[in-house]
Amino acid sequence: MRYSAWKVFWEGLTGNKGWTPQWREPEPKPEYDVIIVGGGGHGLATAYYLAKEHGITNVAVVEKGWIGGGNVGRNTTIVRSNYMLPGNEPFYELSMKLWENLEQDFNYNAMISQRGILNLSHSDPQHDAYARRGNAMQLVDAGAVLLGKEEVRKMCPFLDFDNARFPIRGGIWQPRGGTVRHDAVAWGYARGADSRGVDILQNCEVNGFILENGVCKGVETSRGTIRAKKVAVAVAGNSGKVMAKADMRLPIESHVLQAFVSEGLKPLIPGVITFGAGHFYVSQSDKGGLVFGGDIDGYNTYAQRGNLPVVEDVCEGGMALIPMIGRARLLRAWGGIMDMSMDGSPFITKTHIDGLHFNGGWCYGGFKATPASGFCYAHLLARGEPHEVATEYRLDRFRRGAMIDEKGQGAQPNLH
Question: DSSP labels for 101-125?
């Protein structure tokens, strides 16, 4: 079924009796060409692009829970491509281009809103660093505008410009950045993959890999043995646990990242704003709620919930930037499990086990990378070689001394 304004109108006239389920609930086949472990945004996008771009449709997406129950539905919905290093910026720019055409591509309303993202600077050295980042963005046509204090004041007059501790010097603005409805992304990719013949297997947990003579031949699941020519893992914060079933130890730590939504307010935030003197970022949803977040909880965990100290820290950052939001009430909060890599950059790679591939280590950048991650992972699975914008996302880069340390903070996952 294709969606359109006419379809909505017609169903309204006929009692909404013609809608069909967005995807099937198939039984597992004994064997597939590709099994994708993980039914989040990256796994579903990979399945979608395998079918659409490469014609590989004998694919199963194996998800231990339900579609949309993981990080793809537990984030602050921000999309951007304001990176600097050559190993990262072209990749995230590809993702931005895919975001811009996504709704037409998979015929689903993902509520993509390119209202821009503004990163504030609070010192002269930070402003200079933003100028350097903006120049790197311009080299790949990502678009960047360096703003002075008065230009920021005109755009966001509600910010605290009189704060002596965190003075606002200016900022860097990417007009093409913005937000996307996170669960709609999961549903749209799931529907698009299913319509092309991909089997989406919910409530199907992977308990182990079938390894024969150093080759991965499939997976053992809670719904039985499923064999495959290739197995691709994309399970975000659970990467360490899943890959341990193949006796692999990853350069990854798992942390929880909390996000928050306030009560509905009148339109205030024009796009996305980030606080340069701390870790706070905020946007406003179509319902009026302020959607915001900050740092990860510093301890290792697999829990999808956080603790009070980070709630306090995030709210302090918000108050330092926009004091008037102190009167708003917090409506709800949630947590996602972040797979924090040692250099803050991800992996889309083969492993030393033939037939077993890995996608992970996304740190804070997983949601915004969803389209490009799926596109490049599908390219790797179909052609056996990395996509041109993902050549540096290999597991062996630490051994080769080729880290992609975007923030320049070294091997401290809690800081990335």
Answer: THHHHHT-----B---EEEEE-SHH
